[in-house]
Amino acid sequence: MDGGSAHHDGTGQTQTTIVKRTLKAVKAAQDRLHRERMLAIEGDEPETDRRHTGAETGFGDDGADQGFSALPTITAVAVPLPAQTWIDIAPGATFTRAAAAVSAARTLNRMQHMALTLVCEALDARVDGEERQHLQYIGGGGGTGKSWLIDSVKQVFAAKDVSNQLVITAMSRTAAAGIEGTTLHSAVGLTFRNAEGAMVNLIAAGNIEKAKERWRRRSAFVVDKVSMLGLLTLYEVNQKLPMLRGFLEEAFRGLPVVIFTSNFLQFTPVLQKSLLADIERIATGPDGTRPPPSGSAAERRWREAEAKKLW
Q1: Which residue intervals of 95-221 are DSSP H helices?
Q2: Which residue ranges are recorded for the region named Disordered (predicted)?
Q3: Rounded to an integer, what distance in angstroms lies between the CA atom of residue 192 and that of residue 53?
């Protein structure tokens, strides 16, 4: 076997040892594929008619072959692709009309249809010149169809051929993979500590201009599993967006549509207060807006109070 060796362990079973060099090659190839998929998710590549390939989410027909030319031969396991619904609408059709077609094709229930329609009506109003911002929470227990609804939103944008205006995020890698999105930290460039203890920011200095271009064309921002979103992280998100979208006064720096989804009976934030926490307004200056000294407990409480306003 290239890159490893096989031996019998005395029990009749064969164990395979893979050398460190091979493991590094596998990891490097996985990292390359991850970056390519991230670029596809973020809309960094020139867009063609990709609605029938799945390439808009980085999982197209040719995705399995990208970045693996240097790998040793590995037995592949076939993984079925998720079910897809393709909607064809007339050019220039409204988001609301696209939502009606998607809702019928995907047999959304009454509440799902209502939630999708609210989002699309807000997007149409924005196209018509209205400046109002649409902030929406979609909740429900497990199995109520929140992920199906998120996928329906994606189908609407795909039908309108504007998938690059939508960003789908979640609070964990597993949750993000389930909705073919990315993590909130990756999307907005939040700094976090990795397994080795090093501080990481996934929007590198060399990519900041591209990140700005992407975020300035966004019209909808989805965050799934917000039961895991702490108030301090929400504050950081709202502070990070000005760098990406400009210093606008509105919540989330003027993103036309912001959608939070979750089940608050599931996981809670780690070492942070939940969005549902009872936080009092903390006034520290004559106008009630000046933050306390950096690094103090009062500053933490002030940030939590500021984030609570967004919720």
Answers
A1: 95-105, 110-127, 146-159, 173-178, 184-188, 208-216
A2: 42-64, 283-311
A3: 33
Low-confidence ranges of the chain (pLDDT < 50): 1, 45-77, 79
- Taking each helix axis from N to C end, the angle separating 297-310 and 231-245, rounded to the nearest 10 degrees, works out to 70
Amino acid letter, residue 90: A
Q: Beta partners for 166? A: 220
pLDDT digits over 196-250, tens only? 655 555 565 557 777 777 788 888 999 999 999 999 999 988 888 877 777 666 6
Predicted confidence at residue 305, as pLDDT, reads 87
Tokens of 139: 């909740």
Amino acid (1-letter code) at residue 308 = K
What is d(CA 99, CA 118) in angstroms, rounded to the nearest whole number?
Answer: 10
User: Encoding tokens for residue 281?
Assistant: 């307004």
Across 97-117, b (16+ Cβ under 10 Å) vs e yields bbbbbbbeebebeeebbebbb
The two tokens of residue 148 are 């199906």
Burial of 220 per CB tally in 10 Å (0-12, 13-18, 19+) = buried
In the chain, what are the domains?
Answer: 1-8+15-81 (no CATH), 90-277 (3.40.50.300)
Q: Which phi and psi angles does 33 have, rounded to 5°?
A: -65, -40
- Cα–Cα distances (Å) from 107 to 128, 133, 141, in that order, read 29, 28, 19
Backbone angles phi, psi at 134, to 5 degrees: -115, 115
Chain centroid offset of residue 146 CA = 14
